[in-house]
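So, who can interpret the following?
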Amino acid sequence: MVSFLLRCCCLLLTLTVPAVEASTVPLSDAQQEWLAAHQQWRVGVVMAPPYAEYDQRQRRLSGFHVQYMERLAVSLGINLQWHRYVNDTDLDEAMRANEIDLAPGLRQTREGLRIWRYSDPFLRVPRLIIGDINGPRAIDLERLDSNDVIALEGPGAVADYMSSNYPSQPVLEVGSQFEALRQLLEARVRFAVVDEPLYGRLSQRAEYASLDVVGDLGNPLLLRIGSRRDSPVMSAVIDQALRNFPARDFSQLQEQWLKSRSIDQSRRISYWRSLSLLLSLLLAATVAMLVWQRRQQGLLESRLKSARRDIEARAAAEEAQRLTQFCLDHSTVGILWLNWDSHVRYANQAAVELLGYASDNLLDQPLQALEPGMSMDDWMQLWRDARSGVEDHQIYECEWQRADGSRFPAAVTLSFLRLGSKEYLVLFLADITERRRASAALQESEVRLKAMAGNVPGLVFRLERQDVGAPVNIAYISEASQRLVGYSADLLLQPGRGIRSLVHPDDEPGYWSSQQQALDSMSDWYWQGRILTRSGEIRWADIRASVRGQLEGRQVWDGIVWDITDNKRIELELDASRAQLRKLAAHVETVREEEKAHIAREVHDELGQMLTVLKLEISMCEISFAELDPGLAARLQGMKRLIAQLFQQVRDVATALRPPILDAGIASAIDWQARRFEERTGIACLVEVPECPPQLGNAKAVGLFRILQEALTNVMRHANAQTVSLTLQQHGDMLCLSISDDGQGFVVQQGRQGASFGLVGMQERAQMLGGSLQLESQPGEGTLIHVSVPLDDSPAEPVALISTLEN
């Protein structure tokens, strides 16, 4: 009977509650097409309560990951096919064998990046430190002594985190978190590290009542959804679905599966469920009566909406008609509609004012009265051409006559119009009196411009080309050419002469290349080089020309040739000075690195030997006197721990000054720095270096390593990235290092200035090594730094051309 009532309630709820839409996640058109073609997704899951478990009674999967993926599938309108696995290794093998498409609850690992495409973290699972309930209520890992052993699952991320951050803390690695708690119950260890959901379930058992939480490890477990690496669209769809997952539903899933619940609370939930079922049965009759009423109301509302849409469409059409009529009547261009007999059938206000007629008098006027030069035969030919569609729009200029007999020049545009069975020739009339005045003024302005160009302290010229691909001709050269190069303008305008005859023979390839590039791309022209005057003197010239498009496809380049000999001499002297400063900076950096290496060796060797001797002396004192005085033994132990910490600090200082791994080559140094970066930040770092890297000088190896350190520091501080890729390759005689991340990126601005000189320092260091640095970044698309360094030991020096000017 109870099951029958439950089925009735479910049926009534199905009738009353609106169905969930097949897709509630906003997707692009391309993503929706892909999703429509991939409705079946194969999901792999590792059986680990409370994230995933199999209910033998109901014969179905349950758990946090299962319900979370099922709700994502409902929001995307897809079907899931589940595959169960025992551990993560079997799950990875299934992905390599193409048996599954995605898997929830994965941890991002360096090896996993090669087979999975990870989503953003959707669950942050704290790792708790468990101790005895009668022990300390809160602990600090840095203040525990050597007797406080911590049991944890290992090897793995937790064990690596402890070894890198608390190397002096004794740790017992066991096979599972259950075993870690067992070691704590049997008093073999002082503390244990377990995940919060697992402890939430185990804390309800009587055997774990003597345990309690004493701290947080500070290294939470970030769970992600892994998908196929060859399907970026699936990964993008999953990320969009994760961002649109309701926060309230996610909190309910956490409370259901990942939070601890007392027995009283479970009983209270069962009580309210029973009460809700009873209320549902009582309201079933009322809901059934409301169903029919809602359906009828929906039909009435749909009909009402349809009627409203029809009324709105009719009103919009009438409004468009009124707006069209208003635009015609108030247009600034005169509009005339003429019948086949050349009589006016419609004239707007602009035409009435332009021709000087009253509105009623202009109607039925023949075209011959408005345009005296138009005969009836010309009109009939014009009508036939427009009616047959010889030209869609005909434009001509002529003299028109006003009502008072005065005439004015007009531009007339013709267009043929059919309205049902009626035909009209539409004339668009414009007064061009001002345009002709402007044309005359333009001609006068050209005369003045030529006079002004002759007085400019430079050579003004114009290049013209009739069409794309046609040869270019020099159309104008100002008279200032006589002062600049000693040749008259008439002489330079002769065939075979022009500006190209003035270019120095050594600079002709660059001149032709820049000019041809400007012609091909129809862009502005810029060139700097040497020219020869009539007396044979070498001068430096700057040519700048801007392109302008003309009618009928003609292109024009207007430009000027400046004499920049004095400026060029100053520029070359400044380049030589900068080269000397960069060389000095490189020498100072080399001396600095050598001094760092010397200090590192002194610290490591001398101070290390002294600490070793001190440790041996303390050990001898411990052997001789520890048994006589327990207090002295404790002090000697403390001194040994301090010496061990000092040993580590000495190694850290020596490594910071100059890592010894640089002696093994730049490839080994890059791999070592990547591992240290992963341990310190938790960001996955992929390294690709050649098996036999080319030999690199000590100065360049140190400089390239310092650039890598600065780039990784910027990633750690600002990028908010999940993955960093380091690639070392040889291209010809250049060694290239690429550093890319998938972080938030930024807008690259030329000439950035500020309190931070990280990027400027990296660029200057690359230039001191004779190489270059390129930076590419966009917001939301990560950052790429590409460094190229020559393999030879001598960086390229700028060529000084001052002697050329002096000659």
